[in-house]
What we know:
Keywords: Cell membrane, Ion channel, Ion transport, Membrane, Metal-binding, Sodium, Transmembrane, Transmembrane helix, Transport. It comes from Nocardioides pini. InterPro entries: FluC (IPR003691). It is found in: Cell membrane. Belongs to the fluoride channel Fluc/FEX (TC 1.A.43) family. The chain is mostly helical. The radius of gyration is 18 Å and the shape is globular. The protein contains six helices and no strands. The longest helix is centred in the C-terminal third of the chain and has 26 residues, at about 100-125.
Amino acid sequence: MTHPPIRAVDILLVAAGGAVGAVLRHLVDVAAPDTLFPWPTLAVNVVGAFVLGVLPVLAVVRRSRRVAAALGPGVLGGFTTVSAWAGQTRDLAAGGHVVVAGAYLALTLAAGLSAAALGQHLSRRPEPEEALG
């Protein structure tokens, strides 16, 4: 399968989407209460995994590879974060909270994979047939 050539506009769309996603992620962090367990990162990653799984059901995404790129690697790429998750897990363990770190690691993996699978399942539902008439 050959991919279409990468154009500057494609890169700009992904970059703009990434900026939007990063700002949304920051707003979640700022709005969240400060607790030992990093709920904001968990929530962001699970929601992002679900939405990424659902994207193919959106007609605009199916019709436009540019919209798909702006929303997928762009917005959702900027919104979700593996690096923060890894760093937070490491920090929890290094701070003596090994059980919390393990729970966070396992919960993020399980919830993220489940959310992505649910999103993909929902995006594969058959579309209703148009009424004949």
